Q: What sequence folds into this?
């Protein structure tokens, strides 16, 4: 990271603070242990930006912007970004491992219990409630995602076409994205009349 | 065994870089592949595992359990290894992508296409999440009590800030008492 160690210049503002790997392990391990889906980005921001000062608010939102347009779980992406920001590739690896290990162990244990006891009536009754709540949670995510994405008739049509392609045509998610992604992005392309920046060349959608 | 590992890696690496809008968008394809294509589990098991997986971790910890189940026939040790393989294959590619894009981000940050991508992809994510919710609903809401529990959970999620883990634990308790 340090390109010129012999020059003892005062640290530039952009330079991230020195953070030990143990601290990273503890930080992301705790998040991994207590994490569930949404709302966690706000939690990470409060801890990493406000409390620890590991990165500025601007850097955090820049990271969030990257993660939001990339595939993958947002919390994982943010963690990898912060790890990389603080300690480079090692930090990113440590962050990823730390945030994934607690849920991996917990969920695997529950899975083993399920396959061991899943067929008896007690666990069947228990799981009926769990899956019903899981269904409610998924439905609430539909509402939240819908609220964020619908700004016009085109967006509603996109939602419906996606749903139908997946349900009726059984198209796989990667093909849905390759097929509809460019169309939808092109539809929402930057217009010169809306923003002063001239449209640049089309970005590749991975 | 090696073949199963290979299937897991191939499937989850593709799903990893397709998960625009979070892990849950790949759920319909995951179900289709795990249940109908590879016959690793039944629909009911898939939905059960999804319910278990949301207790902790980022969305789509269900991949861990799909890996576990896919390799269960080879014994518990291999099953855990399968869970590990699936988890790495799901979360590593998207993480590498974050690092790569993060490197080039500064020259890209001001591009107006950034918002276009976000606004364009979001309705597609919504459609995929809708399809995922449909699959879960079909295999979790069998009876009136489960329908009520699902609705209550939905309302609590939309109108309160109650932690979902509390809801899951409470629902497990309630249904164990009343539905047994």
A:
């Amino acid at each position: 990271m340090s390109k010129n160690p012999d020059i003892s210049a005062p640290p530039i503002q952009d330079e991230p603070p020195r953070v030990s790997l143990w601290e990273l392990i503890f930080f992301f391990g705790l998040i991994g242990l207590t994490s569930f889906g949404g709302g966690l980005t706000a939690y990470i921001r409060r801890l990493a930006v406000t409390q620890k000062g590991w990165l500025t608010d601007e850097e955090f939102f820049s990271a969030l912007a990257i993660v939001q347009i990339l595939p993958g779980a947002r919390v994982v992406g943010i963690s990898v970004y912060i790890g990389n920001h603080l300690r480079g590739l090692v930090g990113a690896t440590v962050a990823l491992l730390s945030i994934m290990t607690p849920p991996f162990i917990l969920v695997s244990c529950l899975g083993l219990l399920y396959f061991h006891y899943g067929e008896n009536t007690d666990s069947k009754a228990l799981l009926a409630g769990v899956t019903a709540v899981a269904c409610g949670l998924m439905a609430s995510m539909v509402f939240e995602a819908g609220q964020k994405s619908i700004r016009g008739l085109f967006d509603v049509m996109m939602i419906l076409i996606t749903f139908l392609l997946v349900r009726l045509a059984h198209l796989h998610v990667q093909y849905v994205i390759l097929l509809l992604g460019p169309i939808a992005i092109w539809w929402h392309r930057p217009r010169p009349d809306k923003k002063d920046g001239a449209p640049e060349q089309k970005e590749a959608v991975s | 065994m090696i073949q199963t590992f290979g299937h897991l890696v191939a499937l989850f690496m593709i799903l990893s870089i397709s998960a625009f809008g979070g892990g849950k968008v790949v759920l319909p394809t995951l179900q289709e592949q795990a249940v109908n294509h590879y016959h690793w589990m039944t629909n009911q098991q898939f939905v059960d595992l999804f319910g278990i997986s949301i207790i902790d971790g980022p969305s789509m910890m269900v991949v861990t359990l799909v890996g576990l189940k896919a390799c269960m026939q080879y014994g518990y040790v291999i099953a855990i290894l399968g869970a590990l393989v699936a988890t790495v294959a799901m979360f590593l590619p998207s993480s590498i992508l974050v690092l790569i894009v993060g490197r080039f981000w500064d020259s890209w940050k001001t591009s107006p296409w950034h918002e276009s991508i976000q606004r364009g992809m979001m309705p597609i994510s919504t459609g995929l999440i809708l399809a995922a919710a449909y699959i879960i609903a079909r295999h979790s809401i069998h009876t009136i009590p489960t329908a009520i529990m699902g609705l209550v959970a939905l309302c609590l999620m939309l109108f309160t800030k109650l932690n979902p883990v509390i809801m899951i634990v409470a629902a497990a308790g309630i249904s164990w008492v009343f539905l047994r």
Remarks:
- Chain B has a mean pLDDT of 90.
- Chain B touches chain A through 114 residues (CB under 8 Å).
- The longest helix of chain B spans residues 76-104.
- The CA atoms of residues 105 and 111 of chain B lie 10 Å apart.
